[in-house]
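ENTRY TYPE: protein
WANTED: fold as tokens:
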Amino acid sequence: MKRLINLSPTPPLKLALALIPFVLIVILYMSGSEARLAENASDKLLPAFSQMGDAIQRLAFEPSKRTGDYVFWQDTASSLYRLGLGVGVAAMFGLLIGMLTGSIPMFSAAASPLLTVVSLVPPLALLPILFIVFGLGELSKIVLIAVGIAPFIARDLQGRTREIPEEQLIKAQTLGANSSQIIMRVILPQLFPRLIDSVRLSLGPAWLFLIAAEAIASTDGLGYRIFLVRRYLSMDIILPYVAWIALISFVMDWGLRQCNRRLFPWYLPGNK
């Protein structure tokens, strides 16, 4: 008899097991929504799916009377623009700092304590400072995302750099490689798949910082719209927007995993 720890589901069973929690959530929501609407047809806490569909139909496929834009898609484009730039900047700086602190002891001695301290500062506590320094425009939102996740990426890549077998570095030096050649040709290629994994794990916090910044100082974006309509208790808009953010995040995570799997097949964590 196989132990439970050694049992692996077949692909169809794996799909079925993955869908079960979502089906249960939908059933529970529909039951709660029907019960509340039966007591009060004007209840806004748990709107019916038809009400949410009507709201998204209005926002996504009918131009705004004030601006002429399709609000849903304009919010999505604005948020993805900010998120993409913020995550891109964070990945670049995280890779650079993590690689240098992990491979150069002198640089690590100088920068690692600062990196540790910065990573422990709550990024949202810096939001007022960023608004004062960079203003209420796009730059402050992008900087918040970058400052929020770059230390995590840097520390993760620092640890991965230090995990590289010392034998590889010794062999490279024996063959005459200098420090820059070792970093660029031995260390850097091994950090790329870990960088993709770090970015995947940073997507959740990145969305959090983006939504917080948009809620405070923005005129469009998914976070802005959610906090704008909350004053009217418009759950028929808030819930679809939250589900849309979750779907976008899932697609981004899946895309990064596929990228890791195809570009770096030798990297086992990327093949999970």
Remarks:
- The first helix runs from residue 11 to 39.
- The chain has one domain: 71-271.
- The chain has a mean pLDDT of 90.
- The radius of gyration is 23 Å.
